[in-house]
Design goal:
With 325 residues, this protein is of the alpha/beta class. It has twelve helices and twelve strands. Helix 3 links the parallel strand 4 and strand 5. Bound molecules: iron/sulfur cluster. The site of iron/sulfur cluster has 15 residues, from helix 1, helix 4 and helix 8.
Length: 325
């Protein structure tokens, strides 16, 4: 038989429902711009402590522009600038940079810095902090590094909240990582409030606007979807939470980094696939996933209704002063 190419008419029909908002948040956008501006200002190479955001495509692009990613400050030469990642760093890191006379730019998201300031204030008030978050996440390490050892205790689950031991029940407060599941956190907070009725809550929600909005956007489209593809890195907390949100609503969800990661057997022949992207995943990867679906389906694409996000964070003065002048 001669080779007969498939025509679009022969491909099964697939509705692709794209969640909104999705992808880059204001903190990620700012952190990437900081590295780009630092490269413009200081020339290459600019060192970056840790992945600037949790996405290897973003990291690779910046590497191509002249950024060098390192794990620790002692890998940075004395004569080169260093940028700290969006997740925030323990106080000891800028202190060590100052001691060495390094030029550094802090790309910590302003919403993470807000949590740092809250933590410091609570300790000044003599409170012990119960911090809801995930062990080992750089944001948690950064926040713990703002306060004296022993003054903050990690609570990861409702089970932890039920048994956590505290130095006293009167002077307690809780704070949270910015990229948690809204629903899980509510259950943990409920358990803490039940055990410690006088525990001080943060003045405003610590789970950031971008995390909450992306989870709400998945909830809004889940009922229509047979499968949910979440674009994001396996170490991206907010992306992992998006896949969990879909699963909990009964929609099988998969976290994928790019189009070639789609597991076609798992995907099967759905009528509707939802797509979203974590706060550190660029839109180009959403397009790549849609294009991959087009190779097997006759895709009808639709973006979910949404209220646009307008959040923008100011860039550090030291990088934009010339531009403003
Ligand atoms: S996810 Fe939230 S806290 Fe994290 S960088 Fe984005 S805006 Fe900031």
């Amino acid at each position: 038989m001669p080779y007969m190419p498939c025509t679009v008419d022969e491909l099964p029909s697939l509705k692709v429902l794209i969640a909104a908002p999705r992808g880059f948040c204001a903190g990620v956008d700012r952190a990437i711009q900081i590295v780009e501006l630092a490269l413009e200002r200081f020339g290459a190479p600019v060192y970056v402590r840790h992945e600037i955001v949790h996405n290897r495509f973003v990291v690779e692009r910046l590497r191509g522009l002249g950024a060098i990613f390192v794990d620790e400050l002692d890998e940075v030469p004395d004569d080169r600038p260093v940028v700290f990642s969006a997740h925030g760093v323990p106080k000891s890191v800028p202190a060590a940079a100052q001691t060495r006379g390094l030029t550094y730019v802090d790309a910590t998201c302003p919403l993470v810095s807000k949590v740092h300031r809250q933590a410091q204030r609570l300790i000044e008030e003599g409170r012990h902090i119960l911090f809801i978050g995930h062990a080992g996440h750089p944001e948690v390490i950064g926040t713990f590094g703002q306060v004296p050892t022993g003054s903050i205790t990690l609570v990861e689950t409702v089970e932890d909240a039920e048994v956590v031991a505290v130095p006293g029940t009167e002077n307690l407060a809780f704070l949270t990582q910015t990229t948690l599941s809204v629903d899980d956190t509510a259950a943990i907070v409920e358990a803490l409030k039940r055990r410690f009725p006088s525990i001080r809550a943060p003045r405003s929600e610590d789970i950031c606007y971008a995390t909450s909005n992306r989870q709400a956007a998945v909830k809004a489209i889940a009922a229509e979807c047979d499968r949910m593809l979440v674009i994001g890195a396996p170490n991206s907390s907010n992306s992992l939470r998006l896949a969990e949100v879909a699963e909990r609503l009964g929609v099988p969800g998969r976290l994928i980094e790019r189009g070639s990661d789609i597991d076609w057997d798992w995907l099967g022949q759905p009528a509707t696939v939802g797509i979203t992207a974590g706060a550190s995943a660029p839109e180009v990867l959403v397009r790549e996933v849609v294009d991959a679906l087009r190779t097997r389906f006759d895709v009808h694409e639709e973006e979910a209704e949404h209220s646009p996000e307008r959040m923008i964070f100011k860039l550090p003065r030291e990088l934009v002063s010339d531009r403003a002048a």
